[in-house]
Amino acid sequence: MKKLMSGNEAIARGAYECGVLFASGYPGTPSTEILEEYSQYPGVYAEWSPNEKVALEVGIGAALAGARVLVTMKHVGVNVAADPLFTISYTGTNGGLVIVTADDPSMHSSQNEQDNRNYAKFTRIPMLEPADSQEAKKFVKIAFDISEKFDTPVFLRSTTRVSHSQSIVILEDRIEGEDKTGIYKNPAKYVMVPARARVRRVEVEKRMSELREFAESFPENRMELNDPEVGIITSGMSYNYAKDVFPRYSYLKLGMVFPLPVNLIREFASRVKKLYVVEELDPFFEEAIKAMGIEATGKDIFPYTGEFDPGIIETSMTGRSAERVDLPTLSLPQRPPNLCPGCPHRGLFYVLGKLDAFVAGDIGCYTLSFMKPLEGMDSTICMGASIGMAHGMSKALKEKGAGKIVGVIGDSTFVHSGITPLLNMAYNKSAAVIVISDNSTTAMTGLQEHAATGLTLQGEVTGKLDFTLLAKAIGIESVRVIDPYDIKNTKEVMKEERAKDCPSLVISKGACVLLKKQQKVKPAKPFTVDPEKCIGCKMCLGLGCPAISWRRFEDRDELKIYKKGKKQEGISSINSFLCTGCTLCRQVCKPEAIAEVTDNE
Amino acid sequence: MNNSGKSILLAGVGGQGIIRASDIMSSVIMEAGYDVKKSEVHGMAQRGGCVSSHIRYSDKVFSPLSMKGGVDLLISFEKLETLRYLDYLAPEGIIIINDEEIYPPSVNMGEGEYPSNVTETINEYFTDVTVVSASSLAEKAGDKRMTNTVMLGALSVHLPFDPNIWEEVLKRTFSGKMSEMNISAFGMGRNV
User: Fold this and answer.
1) For testing contact with chain B, the best of A32, A33, A241, A324 (most B CBs within 10 A)
2) Contact B105 A30 (CB under 8 A)
3) Cβ contact (<8 Å) for A336 and B109?
4) Does B33 touch chain A if contact means CB atoms closer than 8 Å?
5) Could you tell me if A200 and A261 lie in one domain?
6) Which of A73, A189, A217, A296 could share a disulfide with A275, CB 3.0–4.6 Å?
7) Contacts with B, A 365-394, CB within 8 Å
8) pLDDT attached to residue A337
9) Domain span at residue A410?
10) Into how many domains does chain A fold?
11) Helix (H), strand (E), coil (C) string for B32-66
12) CATH number of the domain that A266 lies in?
């Protein structure tokens, strides 16, 4: 049966078809849908772990017990999981262990665009890279075979364009593997004290040598010999882009991007006159190929940064581009993503943006609040960084920083990596204020459950982490819970907590509006602006709510009757279809021009 | 693209049903027997930002992304967004625009201007431009959320697929009353 599938759906399907019964991960664009899809197949176990390090350790445990295991994460998640990663390469995995790293060239939804092919080389773990959904499904299965044959974890590298593009996949039946699970004790292999690690270290290099040999005849390292004038070495989505523009050139398409098939590359290079290396991000192949003494053209003409498309490859290689209409340069208003109408983060960041304080932020929807008009965040580095940074800044500034350092983190991000830095604040007697902006879900990646939501990935009811109890248990004495839809109280609590010289935690509790919509919670009545009362002070616009807009008298003659003074230039208006009745605008409106829509309106 | 296929670009604003429309179109293309690839970016983009979806079909498709100057059909669900993607169009490219205006945040805040002469600008550079009141047609058909289906109807006359395939896929995508309503919204777009 043929089906249109995204790369992520295909990875999940591939794992299911080849008998994988166990998967773990942490949500992160562009990897999230893999586990969401996989978790819905019958008879499988799948979990959201609190972070990628835990997810990988869970996966390692399951693999050592003989299961076939899939672990998924985005590229920066591998940084979090790096500690166990380097050593599992030494011990080997017993059962098959495949780790998906979904990279994000162009940073569509990420803080950096690191090229995780480097991790393969760094950890001595083989890596496969599919170019479309059909290959994604096929490569997952191959990855498990390689993992079991060579007793090694295997990386499957995807990129945003592979994970989130759809193409036709041929579905196959699931093949149930033999149940090999059990307790396998092998301390020489699994207890990595120095003496034993030294032994395993040598095994790693033996395995590498076998894998290099395997790569030479691996059928997914595919030579397509056509026009001998130009040869292109490439992999993944870049292959598709190049093939689109130059269908007649010769190709060496690498299905396995580490280790490289050295002899195959030499042979290919000897059969073409001019050799190009087409790869997004780092010159990973290029450096290896040049180190082999082979002449090739790569990053001297192709960009180092951002994802490619067919046009970039054509222009880089020929200097030409497709014929197109000569258009004038248009300066168009940008349309950046924004916090939703009714978002619980808005009230909190409206208050934080007005503080004389440095707000160390974190990763989630709320990161968007750095923009105008809220401007409620001064830094974002990585998952969990807000808390450690706030503490470090507060310690370095001493009295100068008193009351001026705040860290803000979402609930899912706090579960991911906020607990240990909060413990550190208690232990090292911090004076910073930390706010957990708790919207009861992992909103940014599409409403995933986590350890504080009370549900598992597969929908089972479970215990819920209680942030207040946790904070008390680790030694944070001052804990406050606030309603971010109450601006006045939020301001007061932030003032009181900043005045303290001990660490304090504020839990700003309001469920994500998208979550409420999903749960079919009936929204409150929308609000409307009374044009008779609006004085055009624009206070409500300072909330940056997509439901509120400005109407200039200059553009609309019919509104001029509402002009109340010489200086008034227009009035505000609320789109009742977008408004969720969150009341924030009513709270900031001094002339009380904002009220609930009445039933006859 | 070559004679046997086309490159299509759907553009608009998060929440307008662009992804759903591109799903429906890709299914129709697959059922018509072609190879098809489509690509859009999720994540940050879903919070009211720009959304675009590339769809390409042929006997064999490699890249899901079109190059600038390579798009045969641009279907824009919002007026201003059309301008953002004009450079993707081939010189003889076809444009279908929904005449709805959705103000970006800077315009809402009174700090930016919504361009006043979108269609005029486009007509200066392209000859095959159709403006459709898809949002109001969808409202007439019973639900504004069917704007995307009206746009698919308008697009369908430029594609060689049997209307029965469109109808089948629409029937399968929507259940109950919505199924009939969408088929009628599709017909309204087709007859523009």
Assistant:
1) A324
2) no
3) no
4) no
5) no
6) A296
7) 365, 368, 372-373
8) 87
9) 344-518
10) 4
11) CCCEEEEEECCHHHHCCCEEEEEEEEECCCCCCCC
12) 3.40.50.920
CB contact residues (below 8 A), chain B span 131-190, against chain A: none
**What pLDDT does A601 receive?**
55
Res. B43: pLDDT tops 60: no
Is there a single domain that holds both residue A307 and residue A356? no
Coil, helix or strand at residue A153? coil
Interval A89-119: pLDDT, tens: 999 999 999 999 999 999 999 999 999 999 9
Q: Is residue B1 domain-resident?
A: no
A551 with A472, same domain: the answer is no
Mean pLDDT on B133-137: 95
B51 pLDDT above the threshold of 80: yes
- In angstroms, rounded to a whole number, what is the distance separating the alpha carbons of residues A279 and A260? 14
Is the separation of the CB atoms in A449 and A456 below 8 Å? yes
Q: How far apart are CA A368 and CA A546, in angstroms?
A: 13
Does residue A59 belong to any structural domain of this protein?
yes
Please tell me the predicted confidence (pLDDT) of residue A600. 61
- Give me the pLDDT at residue A429, please: 97
Taking the C-alpha atoms of A422, A424, A429 and A431 in order, what is their torsion angle to the nearest 10 degrees?
A: -40
Q: What domain range includes position B57?
A: 6-190
Q: What is the pLDDT of residues A222-270, one digit of tens each?
A: 999 999 999 999 999 999 999 999 999 999 999 999 999 999 999 999 9
The domain boundary residue, chosen from A461, A492, A518: A518
Domain final position from A475, A493, A518: A518
- Asked whether the beta carbons of residue A337 and residue B90 sit closer than 8 angstroms, the reply is no
B155: distance to nearest CA of chain A, Å? 20
- Whether A260 is in a domain gets the answer yes
- B41 at the A interface (CB within 8 A)? yes
CA distance linking residue A209 with residue A207, whole number of Å: 5
Mean pLDDT of A147-153: 98
A582 and A543 part of one domain: yes
Look up the CATH number of the domain holding residue B13: 3.40.920.10
| A286/A354 same-domain check | no
Query: What integer pLDDT is reported at residue B70 of this predicted model?
Result: 96
Residue A143, domain member (yes or no): yes
Pair A76, A91 in one domain: yes
Does one domain contain both A464 and A574?
Answer: no
CB A523 within 8 Å of CB A342: yes
| Mean pLDDT across A4-31 | 97
Which residues on chain A are in Cβ contact (under 8 Å) with B74? none
What is the rounded CA–CA span in Å between residue A522 and residue B144?
20
Whether residues A330 and B83 touch (CB distance < 8 A) is answered with: yes
What average pLDDT score do residues A330-339 get? 90
CA atoms within 13 A on the CB side of B168: 11
Give chain A's length. 601
Residue A379, token pair as written in the block = 């830094």
Share of residues in chain A with pLDDT > 70 (%)? 100
Contact A327 B46 (CB under 8 A): no
DSSP bridge pairs for A234:
A253, A278
CATH number of the domain encompassing residue A356 = 3.40.50.970
Check pLDDT > 80 for residue A432: yes
